[in-house]
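Sequence in, structure out.
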Amino acid sequence: MPELPEVETSLRGISPHIKNQIVTQVIIRQPQLRWPIPSNLPELLDQQELKSLSRRAKYLLLHFDTGTLLIHLGMSGSLRVVSNNAQAAKHDHIDIAFANHKTIRLTDPRRFGAVLWLGKKPFEHSLLNKLGPEPLSDSLTGKYLYQKSRNKKANIKQFLMNQCIVTGIGNIYCTEVLFYAGIRPTRAAGNISLKRYQTLVTHIKRILQTAIEQGGTSLRDFVGSNGKPGYFKQELSTYGRSGLPCQHCQKTLIEIKQANRTTVYCKHCQT
């Protein structure tokens, strides 16, 4: 599924085409996504100027004077910029067209994505108001994670993927950062030292930033806003490499399930 780097890549891809542009039409082909698309969205956005765009966790936020539109890519979604007259395909569920003849199109085969109107106080919405700090912000430090983890019995992978602790770290990148930090994913979060959390945060920021710079991770469903895939997949050291040699010690990587998610790690390098 698209994770933070893929969502950030989409944001950077679509922004130059639609920022400060006037909405001329909203076409809803399939209103039943994870939550129903508001039926009055065409009226809410008609002739509104898109003032700015931002990202919070894995959510894209489009800011208008009248309120904020949230777009979530879900498990299989992607946003592309197309011309206003581009023919729609089977899974192209919503178009937002602008006066410059550009359209952003949400494609979502599994329909786990979302398009929601949040009004003028978007950060009070239940999807946003309990989120932890952004992983690339100065608010995420080793000390912060260390303090949050005290007395926590949950394993470190579940701890890092808790969006109330830190936002936007999904299964792919969590697997990778734990490998580079040398931390076994089954270790209790409360049993990890401050020094190891400081090392972990360094790798979180490095890996996510690298993935953003390379355009996100090209997995089964993700394509960027220009239709090109991301290029970080070639850099993955553990995710999707179960049974292959560890790139550090050459011992076989093993796969386990944690909370119904696949985890791959090295027993020798991660302790």
